[in-house]
Amino acid sequence: MKEFVRYIPPIHELQRDARFSTLTQTYGIDTTEMSTILKNIVSTIREQLLNGCWEGETPGSQPFLEELFQQTEYELAQAYQYTIKRVINATGTILHTNLGRARLSQNAMDHVIQTAQNYSNLEYKLAEGERGSRHVHVEELIKRLTGAEAAMVVNNNAAAVYLILRALAFQKEVIVSRGQLVEIGGSFRISSIMEESGAKLVEVGTTNKTHLYDFEHAVTEDTAMIMKVHTSNFKVIGFTKSVETSDLVDLANQHPSIIFYEDLGSGALYDFSQHEIGEEPVVSDVIKQGVDIVSFSGDKLLGGPQAGIIAGKKVLIDQLKKHQLARVLRVDKMTLAALEGTLLDYSKGKDAIQTIPVVRDLLATKKELQIRTDQFIDRLTQQSSGYTATSREATSQVGGGTMPDVELPTVIVHIKSESMSAETLANCLRTENTPPIVGRIQKDELLLDLRTVTVEEEDMMIHALVSIDRMMSKKL
């Protein structure tokens, strides 16, 4: 094979090939970058020829050139495609952590685009013509929706916990129930975050039972804070006891120097319990009980972007804003725009709230999903005879470490292919379709839950299923 090395066209000849300019224009790259990719491919081919392991077309032939430019196009596609891709979530898990958690409302997205494409008054007072603070853009909305005296935003709730403990309880004691020393996603633990913050953890009670007197007996002159952590990602049932927020507020009030801080985790601004969905505390209700400070996530039940929202008494929030970590943990203009857009939806009332995808999907009824599922099956079976599709009752999950004990009644499409296994079909939907479609597999059937699928995405899913069936039928 070594003698064929000299038949490999030089790069300057390949640059004159029409396919060179076509690929350059298609992928929007300059000739230098294109030439570099070609050189790397040619170098690999030359090495394989010299080592006697080249299995492609014979250099110097027209098929060789076709193969060379096909390989170039493949390399370009790999090098210049986005790795973060739109995915159709047909799992029924609303806050699917692996799939990006909360989808933003249209208003939030429009605001993000407008803010990202243009200059903005991020840190500028338009009326005064002088420098301002980025905190002001969402603070008033958070105050209005929660009843808090003041508020600020950092990049996630773990950061909020860290900032609060570091700024308000550094080298001081923080009393926490053993039953609330939770571990959140990625093996991050409240106890570890507390240790990193410099606060001194004081554990009281047991895993399943903690009493008010446990907290009372733990208070010392070195106590800076009593902390309550909402166990939003797990549920302890049976022989249990926990201390109510109101009782801990009263205890903290007996000691003027002690702060009562409640980490709410998921952070609900809407009362889902009125629809018999979970028992998540509403932030405004917690604030009304007199807590000093709370923190919660922006991208879980709130339905906005990833953020850690801190609300509470102004004197404490002012301390946090002035702390050096506030700049380290601050959010950018696009996060603030997304959060402002989401909070504005909440502030407009019930109709606007239900334009937030997380809220809308949580409140979708089994009856509504049954209608959509039946229509989906009818359309699919009319367009393709390669599938057997049925609807069956099941449950959806909230996800994102939120409402772990809540099962949302739903109706799922069960699909069985005549020509391929459920695993093969699911793999084709994930890897061969744009956008990728993610469902579930059970007993060699593909399961699709339309709770987390838009009407537009239903059309895309049907098109994908029909196309895959036709492709497999041709192969057979």
TrEMBL record:
<feature type="modified residue" description="N6-(pyridoxal phosphate)lysine">
    <location>
        <position position="300"/>
    </location>
</feature>
<keyword id="KW-0663">Pyridoxal phosphate</keyword>
<keyword id="KW-0808">Transferase</keyword>
<dbReference type="GO" id="GO:0004125">
    <property type="term" value="F:L-seryl-tRNA(Sec) selenium transferase activity"/>
</dbReference>
<dbReference type="Pfam" id="PF03841">
    <property type="entry name" value="SelA"/>
</dbReference>
<dbReference type="InterPro" id="IPR004534">
    <property type="entry name" value="SelA_trans"/>
</dbReference>
<comment type="similarity">
    <text>Belongs to the SelA family.</text>
</comment>
<comment type="pathway">
    <text>Aminoacyl-tRNA biosynthesis; selenocysteinyl-tRNA(Sec) biosynthesis; selenocysteinyl-tRNA(Sec) from L-seryl-tRNA(Sec) (bacterial route): step 1/1.</text>
</comment>
<dbReference type="InterPro" id="IPR015424">
    <property type="entry name" value="PyrdxlP-dep_Trfase"/>
</dbReference>
<comment type="function">
    <text>Converts seryl-tRNA(Sec) to selenocysteinyl-tRNA(Sec) required for selenoprotein biosynthesis.</text>
</comment>
<keyword id="KW-0711">Selenium</keyword>
<keyword id="KW-0648">Protein biosynthesis</keyword>
<dbReference type="InterPro" id="IPR015421">
    <property type="entry name" value="PyrdxlP-dep_Trfase_major"/>
</dbReference>
<dbReference type="InterPro" id="IPR018319">
    <property type="entry name" value="SelA-like"/>
</dbReference>
<protein>
    <recommendedName>
        <fullName>L-seryl-tRNA(Sec) selenium transferase</fullName>
        <ecNumber>2.9.1.1</ecNumber>
    </recommendedName>
</protein>
<keyword id="KW-0963">Cytoplasm</keyword>
